[in-house]
Amino acid sequence: MLFNRSRGYKNIILLAYPVCLSQLGTVLVSIADSAMVGQIGTVELAASSLANSVFFIFITFVTGITFGITPLIAAADGTKNLTEISRIFKHGILISAIVGLGFSLLLWKAAPSLRFLNQPEAVVELAIPYFRTLAISLIPYSIFQGYRQFMEGLSLTKPAMYISLFSNLINIGLNYLLIYGNFGFPQLGLNGAGLATLISRTFMPFAIGILVLLIPQSFCYLKKMMRLRISIFQAAKILNIGIPCGIQFLFENGALSFAAIMMGWLGTQELAAHQIALSLVTVTYMIATGISAAATIGVGNQFGRRNFRRLRETGFSSLSLTTSLSVVSAFIFIFGNHYLSNLFVRDSQVIQIASSLLVLAAFFQIFDSIQVVIIGALRGMGDVAYPTPIAIGSYWILGLPLAYTFSQLLHLGASGIWYGLSIGFSVAGGLLFLRFDRLSKQGLR
């Protein structure tokens, strides 16, 4: 058993670390955005928090739809069905492009609706143009995700890592030029951060498309897919997995975004402090999503081979790995809360609020990491419908009402919102764990 568990850890780490680095790079850019925007002022940081909180709902929904590609590719790769892989690849890219374009247009038109969220007017005025720039960036991002999920399904996790890390360097460099107006560039403030994000995301699909052409393991499918016809049935197979994944992400991240809106009801400083805590929690979340992606690939491969003993080994190795890492992160959040908060802003009251929130966030991110990895393992088995009602019940029926009760009715303020979220996410993690344990045991019989 020790040998099997060690082998499981090794396989997961080899698959996960490129995805983790890629995801970490993305969130570190988000943290850099927050830190660099925070140097302009508290209102600008609050506007960034508002726009990103709403945008995050939709970008994760789009990402979830593309997640329908990975388990199908992994299962087909497990049985070496080359035609099926090419067919999934073709339809996955088409779906990614159409979904990205559709949501980009929707968000551009809906940007003025931010006024209806009962936020400070000064915050909304800055948030709308920034939000629209983010909306345009959804098109290249979605296409990149389509290519990325295809390659990760083939266990080629490094190409997306290299591209994401290089794109992040572009983003940070452009932030420095466009936010502050250095080296003769226009000083665009928050809009400069949005433009930097758009340019760096536009680079990504072109770069990964070139790598698909250059890597023989992926290029062979590109040639083959050109000869295949478009099939509604094949598109439906991807969407049957992708849409439930997207809906689950929608409810999960929608809960976090609505929590940010509730923070705005408390005040600009609370919203800015929440953005600091959420930015740091997102670091551990992205590590967990990397391990989750590895769990999807590993479990999907074993599910295609009907090897349920190795499937359970992969799933539980992923879970114990992410739990260990999130516990380490919790200690960093608790004992480094003041230092971490000082990295973002100079406002002493915002720093004080953020420091207290980071202690609560330390426990929240453990529950969050556990549930996201189990969802990845379930996705590898094609079980995507069950997590959706879990998400609705745990986040929206339990977590958010408790957050409102604690913060508004019991007058616990910003801390009360994080209490409610922690309870909701812990319940989700427990229920999803029981689901994976039961399904994987059934396959052993």
TrEMBL record:
Give the UniProt subcellular location, in the record's own words. Cell membrane
The name of this protein is Probable multidrug resistance protein NorM
What is the recorded membrane topology of this protein?
Multi-pass membrane protein
Q: Which GO terms describe its cellular component?
A: plasma membrane
The GO biological-process annotations, alphabetized, read as: monoatomic ion transport
Residues passing through the membrane, by range = 12-32, 52-76, 88-108, 128-147, 159-183, 203-222, 243-266, 272-295, 316-336, 356-378, 390-410, 416-436
Q: What does the record give as the function of this protein? A: Multidrug efflux pump.
Native source organism of the sequence: Zarconia navalis LEGE 11467
Alphabetical list of InterPro entries matching this protein: MATE_fam, MATE_MdtK, MdtK-like
Q: Output the Gene Ontology terms for molecular function.
A: antiporter activity; xenobiotic transmembrane transporter activity
Q: What is its main location?
A: membrane
UniProt-listed NCBIfam families? matE
Any idea which UniProt keywords this protein has? Antiport, Cell membrane, Ion transport, Membrane, Transmembrane, Transmembrane helix, Transport
Is the keyword Nucleotide-binding in the record?
Answer: no
UniProt cross-references to Pfam families, sorted A to Z = MatE
